[in-house]
Amino acid sequence: MEDVISVMNLSKSFGSTQAVKSLSFQVKKGEIFGIIGPNGAGKTTTLEILEGIQKPTGGEVEVLGLVPSRQLRELNNRIGVQFQATSIQKKMKVKEALDLFSTFYKGDTQKDELIALLDLGEKLDVCFEDLSGGWKQRVTLALATLHQPELLFLDEPSMGLDPHARREMWGMIRSLRDKGSTIVLSTHYMEEAEKLCDRVAMIYSGELKAVNTPDELLNDVATHYIGFESEGVSYDFLLTLRDVAHVEKEDHHFKVFSEDLQHTAYQIFTYCHQEGIVLRNFKFDRGSLDDLFVQYSEKEKTG
C-alpha cells in the first residue's frame, strides 16, 4: 500500500522551545491514522506542518508527493482540514455556509451527498450559533470535505462532544474513509484512538514514542497489569515492591503495573499469606491505550 504522507526527522522550534523533535513516520493510503498524546505534546504543530500552515525547522515532509511548505496551493486542492475551531459567522445559516464554501472549489462538490451522510437536512435553515457542539462539528466536517479530498486532517474532531455525539462522529469519519479519503486525526481521547484508528503514533514532549496498530501497542508489557480486590492490602505497600511501575486504586479494587508481573504476583501472594490478608478476583490482564498513556506520562514526569 502506497504512502500518502512521509515524514523524516521532522523538527520544529519556536525560539528556544523545540515543539517537535526528529519525528519520522508514514501514513498509508486509505487508513485512519491517529496522532495521540497529552495537551502540548506537539500534535497540532505536527498537523499544521503537514497541512502547510507551519514551516518545519528541519527534516523532510511529503504529503501526496508534494512538499507542503513549497507547493501549498496545489496541496490545498487535494486535502481537507477540520480545525479545532473554525470561524463561521454566527448568523450564517448552515445552507449558506455550504453554498459559500462550495464556491471555493472548481467543478462539482459532494454537498448533497454530505447533507445526507451527516444528516444535515433538518439543520439547513438553522444559524451556526444556534447549533449544539455536535452539530457544529458535523457542519465543519462537511465544509472540510466538500471537494472530496484525497486526504483529510481532523484536529481533535470530537473535543467537547458528549459520549453519544462522539460515537456518531466516529461513524461519520469511518464513512468518509469508506468513500475514499485517507484520514489523519489528532486526539487526546485514548478510547477514540483505540476504536477508530487503524494505526496510532504516540507523541510526548514532541518525540515519537511508538507507532503501530492499537492492538500491537497494547501488547506492550507496559499495559499489562495485575488486578485484584482486597480490604487489607495498602496502596503504599504495593509501591514498595520491586519492579512495580504504577498502582491504581479505586475503593478496594487495585491495578498493579509492573515490569515483572510474575515476580510481583509472588510478592503479593507471599505478603498476604504471611499477614492473613484475603485476595479476591486476582487476575493478569491487558490494559487499554489509556493505561499506556498513563505509563508514558509517568515516565515523562520522572524524567
What is this entry, summarized?
InterPro entries: AAA+_ATPase, ABC_transporter-like_ATP-bd, ABC_transporter-like_CS, ABC_transporter_ATP-binding, P-loop_NTPase. By secondary structure, this protein is an alpha/beta fold. It folds into two domains: 3-213, Rossmann fold (3-Layer(aba) Sandwich), CATH 3.40.50.300; 221-302, Alpha-Beta Plaits (2-Layer Sandwich), CATH 3.30.70.
Structure characterization notes:
Keywords: ATP-binding, Nucleotide-binding, Transport. This is ABC-2 type transport system ATP-binding protein. It comes from Halobacillus dabanensis. Pfam families: ABC_tran. Belongs to the ABC transporter superfamily. The protein is an alpha/beta fold and 303 residues long. The chain has 2 domains: 211 residues, Rossmann fold (3-Layer(aba) Sandwich); 82 residues, 2-Layer Sandwich (Alpha-Beta Plaits), CATH 3.30.70. 34% of the residues lie in helices and 29% in strands. The chain contains 11 helices and 13 strands. A 6-stranded mixed beta sheet has the order 5-6-7-3-8-9, sandwiched between helices. The longest helix is centred in the middle third of the chain and has 16 residues. The model has no long low-confidence stretch (mean pLDDT 90).
